User: Fold these one by one.
Assistant:
Number 1:
Amino acid sequence: MASMDGKREVCSPFIPRRNALRKTSAEIVSEARQSLRVQSTRRPFTPRDGHRQLFGKSYVRADRDSRPPSAFSLHAQNFDAPDSRPGSGTRLSPLDHKPKFPVLCDAEDPFKSFPKTPSAPLEVKKGPPGMRARLLRTGSLTALTPTEGHKQSDNKYGCKEQSYPSPGQKQLPAKRPPGTDKTEGRGGPHKPGPRRTASESRITQPGVDSGDGLTECTAGRKAEQGNRDITMSPEEDAESSVWNNMIAPRLQQLESVAAGGSEGSVDRLCDLCDGLRGTLAEADMLGRRCKRRSGILRTLFRLIDLDSAQLNLHIAELCLALCVSGNNLLNICKLIFQISRRESNDILFQNSSVIDSFLGILSNEDVSTSGEALLYCVGTLKFLSGNCAILRLLLEKNCVGAAQKLIQRLCTAADTDFTIAGHILVQLTATLRNLADHPDSRPLFISFSILSELCVVLSNHREDPDICTNVSRIYSKLSSYSECRLALAQTPNCYQLFLELLNKHHQKQDLVVRLLFTLGNLAAESDEARWRLFQCEGCVDSLLQLYDTYQRRDDSPHTQPRKGPPRAPPGTVQQDEDVLVKLVRVLANMCIHPAVGPALASNATCIRLLMETLELRCVQESEELLVNVAATINNLSFYREDSSVLRRSQLPMAKLMLKLVLSSSMDAMLEATRVYGNVSQSKNVRDFIMQNKVHQFVVTLLDSKSTEMCIAACGVLTNLAQDPPNRASLSGEGAIAKLVDCLRDFGPGDWQLVSQVCQALWNMIGCGPEKLLDTRERESLLKILTTYLDEEAALKWIEDDDVRDFHRACWEFEFLPVAQKLMKTLQPPDQTA
């Protein structure tokens, strides 16, 4: 370390040892605590949106006019009562061909019921006079829905008979396009027709002997059955019995209670809905297994106009259990969405099966046919996930797994569905952002590969700033945890993707700051992550260009003109500064890698921007930024290659650090002192420190109770003591006495600090003829060193074996060599011999 002829090797506490042949545990600890340190910072704050909307004020979607609304009116008339059309969500156009007379068709033999020649008459029994003529008269077989004004009555089978309008009402025209009316079975309006005679206004379905009327339960029977007796299968008979005895009475109760409108009717209607669902479940008639489900749906839809959130949620719950589709599924999702917009309604969802049904929709519904329904479904889950109790419920019900399935379908959606897929992803990523707040979500995000799936989303929707911002918020939350960082770091091309997004959306501050925070977390994880980021095409140039964009400069003539992309839109000083805090942290963590550090230290633009920040900012207003800049400079100052721009700028850097040392911020003092510990290896810097009396301030830091502050101060004193004139000045400031106090106070609890104290003492009292220690101080120091050099006495207070091994390594490799040299210097010559 030092010799009596004046030649010495100065030890810097901030330069870690790098020994490829043997790396001790003490060296590992030394690296963690010395100059090459990982920088941390606060996660960007995301304010909660107080308004429950699909797209809040913070969203910047380009298609504002075409995006689905959050507010709308919804009534019973918006629903399709029969719910019988396919769930395609698309109304088909009429076929372009010549109209033909409609004929009845048998499901088993489509040719069996075509009109036959007179030699092969229809296979029907003779009925009342005139029946045959009515059956064959064109246009007599109409299929009006219950909303067309017909009356209903119960027949002996418990089915609703449909009585058609009186002669004064309009009917369908005599001739129509082929088949039935295109709105048949959809609840759509029928075109008005000419007046009909009383004998033509009512027709009897063949096979029913209950007089005039067309029943719902026999509307689809074959034409060739004629009016012969109806035979029912055992299954049909059982269903009819359940309908008559259990379901129909409940529907009647629902209608009567709703009509009464008495106090407490809503609670009664909710109980009846629950009872109806229980009855259907027991009879195995949920889903689409109930042939008369259209009657149930009609009754439920009429109750929606009562405008009760509690009742509407029960109605929606039952409708989803009956597997509504198409327009009805969309309207049910809208209805539930409306309910969820009020935070006071959250409690209604906690004991409801709606969440289970919605998660099923997420897992199974097709984007092309049910895109808008999925949008309102996911929007509802986004609102509900803001409630802590429901958030836990969503995790228990595997919302993360359902979200993964939906993400995969959205990422493979057709180009025609790209817009609606983007709208859904805005809601879905916001939901996942809320779920990421709960610690139980992290294992689920990892097991379902959500982090890598979201990278695919970013790649497909990189032009969409809202989706990118939501995903960046998820990453910024989860990348704070090591297991999530590892999962994200293993995602191919994530680093390159983040850099591309930073370039594309450099003006969107809330996106930029979160991507930088995530990159900083990844670079803090391992050397592999630092190298992969550095190896990305244009990495350093992109980061420095972004640095230049967000660097706030005064409009003085001394400021160099800006280059690169246009400045970000004016935001608050704090917003721009937060970007720089996160960006500088990325640089600080990257340069820990032995190949990345020298490249950054040799980059003139990088060093210029760092020094410019120190010059433009003050500690009182930009404390965190300046602390991060100082930490980055400290890491870069470790690399002393000839190409290092920082090495040639050590004196200007030392001058800029002066305002940090003299500030009231302890963090700023600490980082500036660490920088001085490295740059004070230069003679010019040491002279600057002594001339500006910085050494006096450094000596006072030895009184600090912080081990980090003491070890940084010892590093500066170690280098200053290299020059003989400085030793007397340091001793005059009481440096030696304070170092001995540090040795005594910190003792065996921190062998690295104790070893650095010994190094500073060695440089002061062991390298020249000066007598800087009196007899009392010498004896006190000898006594302390004698105690510490006894390994058994020094480590006996440690009980845990692992901790003991750690301290033994520090004692052996850090403390012992320098303490023995110092001990030899203090002993009289006769004892040394």
Note: The radius of gyration is 41 Å.
Number 2:
Amino acid sequence: MQMDNFTSTSLLPQLSTCDSKMKKAIVTLKKLSLKNKRGEEATSMGHSFWQKAKNIRVKNSNITNIGGDLNQTNNYYGFDVTSFEGKKITPDMIASATPAVPIVFKGRGELVEQGVTVLCQQGPRFLAILGAGGMGKTSLALHIMNSALVKKKFAGRFYFIPCELFKDADSLIQGLIHVMKLTLHENQSKNEVLFDHLQAAHDDLLIIFDNFETPWNHSGSKMGVKYLIEKIAQYNVVSLIVTMRGSGGPSDIPWKKLGGKSGIPTLSPDAAKEAFKAFASDNLQNMGNYESEIDSLMNQLEYVPLAIRLSAQHVKRVSMKVLMRMWKTHKTSMLNEDGRELDRLTSVSFSIDLSIEVFRIRGNALRLLSAIAFLPDGVPMWSEHLGDIFMDKKEWDLEVSTLLDSSLIYDQYEGIKMLAPVREHIDLNHRIGQDDIDQLEKFYAQFLQNLSNNDMEAQPILKLHINNIEKIFKTQISGGHSKTSHISAVKIIIRFERFVSVSIGLMDLILQKDENIKEEDEVDLKLLRASALRWMGRFEDAEDEVMSVKECLNEEENISKSEADILGRCFDTLQNIYYVQDQYEKAINMNLQAEKYFKQSENQWAQANSMSQLGNIYYMQDRYKEASEMFSEAQQLFQQIGNELGVAECLQRLGDIYRMQNKYDVAIEMLSNAQKQFGSSGNQLRAAECLWSLGELYRKQEKYDEATEMILKAQKQFEEIGYKGVAWCLWTLGNIYRAQGQYAEAVDMFSKAQMQFQMIGRIVDAAWCYENLGNTHRHQGQYGKAEKVCTEALELLKGFPGEKYRIGWTLLEFGHLFFDMKDFVEARRKYEEARDTFDSHGQLEKEVDKCSEALAELNEAEATASISK
């Protein structure tokens, strides 16, 4: 008999009778179904029948199915849990969705300890493990659950709920009844079964809601889920762990959050490398050969656990070199697990897209997400800048809040940023629009114009944005979309030595792409580029760049002032190139040429600067008299034109001369005054140089605490600006340690200084470090090591015959070494060589006297040795 859609009112009396009989039949079936060996579990077919039939309403209803499909597979405990796809969730499916405790688990020991402490304490025990997708939240929860203390406390009463299977409170309750193996009796609701069980429980139990963002953010289910978890939390025996994407725990429960404000952090570099190697296992042969490649890849993945695991699988088939190339080309599309359906655990891209979907990132929120992905530095000081970046929308607080809640971005020092895997995926799949790039360019062009003229104030601010500026301007120049003057931007950025590589990159692109560049702008950029290349130690490239400008000019007497000024700048730049390579005679020649052309151009500042530069060359040659004269003349000219910075630089150099002449009081006064002037004007480099000179003064006076304080301050400032003066600070610290008999520390400092000098092409200074190492080894009685490094020093100095001071001191140290070794013949030879070298300089009388004293002491030693024989 066909009963579908049967609603005839003429049969209502019969149906009423049928309804009564049906209810009796259901009761009978229910009793039969409950009869098993324990008296508490239903058979699959019988329980399914009454479960599906008990809610049938015959009156005023469409009758479609009375007994249900007797051939279907039903869940064991007497009801159906339906997944998002409409599939019935069974205990086996829940078990399959529950992961094992991961074997590879690195760098999370401290977080595990914190979690265990929370669960084992008295009072509320509610633990929230929050953060972005792929951070290892589930792994952390499993390891906490698996700890010995937690196992002892809960004695097997763990209930793991993989929440990605459940969409609302009702399905969560059904899932809990499943994993707790509870029985649903007649006239009992699922809520009653669950909460009666929790009420009756006497022993502590632990419920883990994993991936809780799924039901929490499902449309229309939040309130029901909120009420459910709050009710569960009211039972004293219940402890909770919740893992979810986002930065805030669900509901108003007083969660103890692991990690920082944005959730659990990425791995440390060391832990990331350990994890990668563990995942790669035996597939990565000769691991030591790939250390730098692994470090680089981990850094580019920003130490995200899922990205590390998925990248390591490729080592089964390809080398590290190929893997690096794959990441560079394919980015997150390569971070998938082979042979498995893509999901949150097997694909970084899937995990990111899931967050976008779960948190409903749309409209302006997605637009902002795309902009943040485009910006390597994110948006520093976002509450201050976002309204100025996007002219069509001033308020972005709601969108930022949504993105932070999703953990697709995180906040750091009042800025908003994005982890590398997320950034690469968003940039590829939700690319920023050209209009927004144009607005970013205009914002940063104005940002640079607004920077303080005080470099010490401006640099920390610029540092937060420099990678954004580089990417935006390069994108606009390359694409021909420039809306502002990038030449003006470069001239601002090049003020800061720390960002010299950014300046060079932008200048290269402008010179290559801008076909309409003005001639004077091209000359400016080429000479600025040459100075930047010289700063980076690329001396040949720097010289070539200068010559490309110089060769286009006529060096005759009748040139214009502007041409003379350009020629003066060319020779001045060449002088600086030779100066830093210790080629002082060439530098002097270039300096004199520069000064001649600056006089023709009537550029007084450049003339004064040339005098000061010539003084620097004389100072490095230990020609202190000539140096002092040049600095004094330059100082007067700087004063005439009102250039306070130039006056301070001359004061600094005069102080250095007095320092070298052991006139400590006047040197300290001059250098202190200069340091204050540089500090007030924001010239961090010169201020740091003054601090180093003061440290050297205190060292010579054996005031080692004051010396160390000054040198460490100088070192910090040099590091902040990215200057090579750090090597000199290491050298001075080595001397301080040696003077106090701390030889191991001294050797460490001299060795580090030597390597830094060698890397930046300061060969003479590297040789000087070898001389100091020789002295230190000699004082330790390590004569073999001392002889080796002194020989190395002299070998390096062969290419710099004008370095009389350092060559003389190295020979003198060699003499001391042979004296201590009782090789008096060789000692005499070295002392005499040192004396002759100092004497040939003409202004090193004190050093000549030291050699004479050493020879006199040697004569006494030889006489004593002769008598004893």
Note: The domain at 91-257 is CATH 3.40.50.300 (Rossmann fold).
Number 3:
Amino acid sequence: MKLGKVEFCHFLQILALFLCLSGMNQAELTRSRSKPYFQSGRTRTKRSWVWNQFFVLEEYMGTDPLYVGKLHSDVDKGDGSIKYILSGEGASSIFIIDENTGDIHATKRLDREEQAYYTLRAQALDRLTNKPVEPESEFVIKIQDINDNEPKFLDGPYTAGVPEMSPVGTSVVQVTATDADDPTYGNSARVVYSILQGQPYFSVEPKTGVIKTALPNMDREAKDQYLLVIQAKDMVGQNGGLSGTTSVTVTLTDVNDNPPRFPRRSYQYNVPESLPVASVVARIKAADADVGPNAEMEYKIVDGDGLGVFKISVDKDTQEGIITIQKELDFEAKTSYTLRIEAANMHIDPRFLSLGPFSDMTTVKIIVEDVDEPPVFTSRLYSMVVSEAAKVGTIIGTVAAHDPDASNSPVRYSIDRNTDLERYFNIDANSGVITTAKSLDRETNAIHNITVLAMESQNPAQIGRGYVAITILDINDNAPEFAMDYETTVCENAQPGQVIQKISAIDKDDPPNGHQFYFSLTAEAANNHNFTLQDNKDNTATVLTKRNGFRRQEQSVFYLPIFIVDSGSPSLSSTNTLTIRVCDCDADGIAQTCNAEAYILPAGLSTGALIAILACVLTLLVLVLLIVTMRRRKKEPLIFDEERDIRENIVRYDDEGGGEEDTEAFDMAALRNLNIMRDTKTRRDVTPEIQFLSRPTFKSIPDNVIFREFIWERLKEADVDPCAPPYDSLQTYAFEGNGSVAESLSSLDSISSNSDQNYDYLSDWGPRFKRLADMYGTGPDCLYS
């Protein structure tokens, strides 16, 4: 393919315009064969121009497709036999080609910031055979940039700090703006910086964006924070360029440019003389406008008469000077103290030494107030000793206390019984003499620590405390004994003179020169033929055999009494019995079996066999228990006649009762006279006795024999019935007696009754009772005469 003459002229014009407008033109593509290309019936041709890219402006806003360029082949004679096709990035979707003329157009708005160039391929085909007439050519459509993006501060907003009092030109921070336009084309991406807000304190370098201080001696204590607005504008800041802004918060950091100063030249504080040591007397603080380490101070007492009595330290959180007591105060000895205190910065900046000394002085006067103090003991701790053999009432020692106040009140003594619960000691209330009140035992408690109370006679609320440590001296009052419970064995095959046990002794006493024990056999055991004892002279003894041939069948246990004597004055002794068992031992002399009964056990059963037998027996027992349990569960219930047994069934009827003749619908016992005391209920856990049920009446009428016999029969059946419930069941019988409070209303009963009751009043009750009045009335118009 090559350019036609007309197209070439157009290209030259566009190229000239492009050079004038710094690259704002289009270009056309012609493919040049770098190698000979042969086609049937044709000769090789050679190109004199080489073009491989087009140029298209971005952000084209026209309604018609944007003309990009033209493709043309030397084979194309203009008769329509050649067609052009386009492939590659954006082909058909963004770029289209006229297959007859080779003209390329862009159908969409292009953005260089999204894609800077497109690589496409073009080919000329024979329209009839659809075969290429030239090889496929690759070319690039490059998008020309326009200034359509403003600079942006991607890292904004910014925060920075600079020390106060910094000189002019001190660098604070650098800001950077980014322009998405092409930096290699024109001035669209060339940015300059300026400051819109923050003058005259700060300035910015136009090209680098470095922010610097513009005023000297900026004081943090006057203003510690500044808000700057920085602008970045492209097109080298010319009119028509796009711009963006960001904010920069600059904080002045502190330097030590302010010395500490006390608000007052002198202070005065009153403290009671009873204030404990290490208590805080006062807090003072020197003001410092600086912060952080620059405000850290140290305090010290440089002069005064209280250098050894008081000390001052610094509170790291509040930077206060804390004055505390080092020694106890005594109003009677000294009533006031004067201190000269200095406060100084710990971190001094040499640049600001000209501002003055970074320290200050003040005077503190402390007035001691008199208080009523408790008695004071002559010693904080008294040490006393007493023998554990001391008798009751023995004097151990004396304590003394006095009233430190000017009144010097008499003092009375007592023992704090919380420290002497067993009341081993007493103290004389006036003299302070401590004596024993009980017998002492060093082995129970070797040292007694008691507290003695001293109270003023005039003010018992003032109590002083003294501490007494009483050490109990030891005497030889405990006999020696075995150091442990020995389990001694002797082998059946032991030889004479064989050591079977080494023993030692202990003694609860504590002699000053240590223990010395002596061992021997008692007189009755000295001539035994089995064992002997050898004293090792080192508080131990050795038990040895005197013969061989020990047999468990003859004697399995021997008891050897050993006599132990200590070296105390006077010496004490005790007899301790050593139990020796005869055992069957292996070749190494290690005991295997020590029970004589082992000989009568059957030798044919091992431990595993015994365990197996026990497991079988337990399994059989479990099976028997399961069978018994299952049989009990299969038994029929005691009450098997469900039709007759209605005592545990609740039947609900919602129909209306049948009147007085229906004696089964409700309990007739409710008609009894409630005013008559009922019989005592029977216990449910014993056999119920037969009770006669009678209806109380107001008339002397005998009980109904028929109902009484009926109840007798039912009770007998319940007593002899094996399927009946237990005795705590409830038997309910309803019957109508002849002793109702309301009397019987039956007409039949009224006829045969000899009752002299007068029912004439029924005629006065209205027409509803007329029938009853006619039946029961005695008037001349009575129905029955």
Note: Helices lie at 5-20, 607-634, 705-720, 747-752, 770-776.
Number 4:
Amino acid sequence: MSLWTKAQQLQGEALRQVQAVYGEHFPIEVRHFLAPWIESKIMSDVDPDNPQHEQYAASVVGALIQELESKAQALTNEEFFLTKIKLQGAAEMFRQRYSQNPLGLLRIIRHCLGTELKLVQQAENMSLGMSSNPAALLPDASGEILQQLDILRQRTQETSEDLRRMEQEQEAFALEYHELTKIQANLTHLQNQAPSQQKNDFEKQLRIKKEMSEHKLNVKLAELLQMRMALAEKHKETLMLIENLQARVLDDELIRWKREQQLAGNGVPFHSNLDSIQEWCEGLAEIIWLNRQQIKEAERLRAKFPIMQANNTDHVPALNTQITQLLSSLVTSTFIIERQPPQVMKTNTRFTAMVRLLVGGKLNVHMTPPQVTVSIISEQQANTLLKNDKMAKGEASGEILNNTGTMEYQKASRQLSVSFRNMQLRKIKRAEKKGTESVMDEKFSLLFQSKFSVGGGELVFQVWTLSLPVVVIVHGNQEPHAWATVTWDNAFAEPGRTPFVVPEKVPWSQVAETLSTKFRSATGRALTESNQRFLASKAFRNPNLQLPLVGPEAGNLMLTWSQFCKEPLPERNFTFWEWFYALMKLTREHLRAPWMDNTIVGFIGRKQTEDLLKQCLRGTFMLRFSDSELGGVTIAWVGDSSEVFMLQPFTSKDFAIRTLADRVSDLKHLIYLYPDIPKDQAFGKYYTPFTDSQTPTNGYVKPLLVTHVPGWSSGGGNLETGSYPPTPQGFYNPQSPEASMGRDTPSVHSATSETVHSRQVDGRSTYIIL
């Protein structure tokens, strides 16, 4: 039995809940006539919360529309005429509303099906005498909001009919009152006539009519006053429901979207539901506008017939003020930055941004296309703006080129937005620095401002929104510290803060999670718990740190901003963040694939590396990040007598010449990747292909640079066997050159081998440097 068949058999409240979940957003007629197709396709084929499924979702929605149109065409009986129109209207609505947002429609349908399934399962459990979990039956946020919007639409329709009936009653009262005035005029006229029996009879009839008319008027007046009071009470309740739903959409859902957008700046995956939020906001805008028009019409009717019951307060003016305030709040809150400007902004460098008004299409704002202006303001100016809700004219902290744009309406996506593609920060004014503050600690924000006209100029809204904090730099070497400021702000900014205040210290567990997320975003793999423990010992300058990274005690381990990026590491001239950032950059640019394959241990101390390798076979090696050199990775290996050696760290400059995998391949004394993986198995897929026969270009043969370690050559110079050129064995003594510095592990320098081979190329003797 299909789910829909079971759903139709539900009784009482359960059946009403099924009916309530459908509405304008997804008509129940569509569910009924396409039940088998919907359940076979949408329940199993696609995940509406996975952005990677969007292309497939678009094809499913297209097929749904085709099925719907085919079904409508097949309904030829006259009794299905209205249903046919309903299905055709639904197909057109799906095409206009969801062609650009197919996942949004599938999310709605999946919610409807999920609600049906939960209610059916609950009914089946109850029939079997099993208890169910009420919490499991709660619909998700999207479904609840759509359901509440449908309720508000229904209430708005009811008050519209009430208003129409009230207007008719008022017109009827006016007609009856006119009749009474005519009767009164006739009676007054009779008073001036000579007495007669005919006059007396006529006067008697008129007075009876007058009494009847006055009675009718009194009844109608009471009914009219009651209707006015009832309508005002209904509007009051509707406005309360609108206010609650709007608070949920704006203060919960939209604020959550903005927070997730900010966390995305640190690499947290961002599954934007902005199109769904726009749909909710558009629904609210339409409902608010219709109720506002009704309240204004009620005011007009009251002004036309100004009667009031004794001791009864006129609530309509207050309702008008309240509904206008709700509209103002909706418009100003839905002016948002869809695509943020770069948070580390270099002067004289092009950047982009995009702003959008979520209710622009529904309120026809695009009929008078609004202009948007962008300026950059300081942290102090942002504070002033929030307090006063306005900026002094011409006040800014810098000069931005191409900083104005006109919002455009895209009919297909129903989006009113403007994209700034060629902005450029030319100048910046900085505040005076205190103590250890640097220019990379200073935060700015881009201010987007506009003015919207609604209702043919009836209402004008001055709107503005601030970007996420921006750090302005003038040189590339300022980038690491600037990213530290941005990362800390994105991760630890608290809701409703004063711009742009952040805590001075935070729990290490939160810092570790932020670093892991950022590293995963840049390199493809997150940090392990072991990696995070090593980073904790590094950040707290305590190699013997043993505190847990999870559990109650972990919350007591607080890392300060100074420890994070201000204070140099012991015996180093760089900070913890600079060291971490350099390694993240190196891994992203040169080591991403090996890191994702777990061939690089990376975050491990020298002592632990030695302890692990000493237990392994000769030739076993490990790749770890250097403690002493920014953005360096070193190879540690075990030689004879279980002695461990460390190769001088390689940096980005080295890998730009020859890749890590090729360098590992060059060094023949490296045999096993820790613990016992043959190195060709671990790195073979990354080796650069090499053939002995090369076609010369412009009479030259391309040289091949080979890495070798003096004193560790395997000897031989035959290219075909892949061995090194001969190296003098006494050239380097592989004992620790830094014994005087107290280092136990020998550090070994690599070098480039250059050997000359002679070959006849085009009749000429050509030398190849290897």
Note: Residues 197-264 form the longest helix (68 residues).
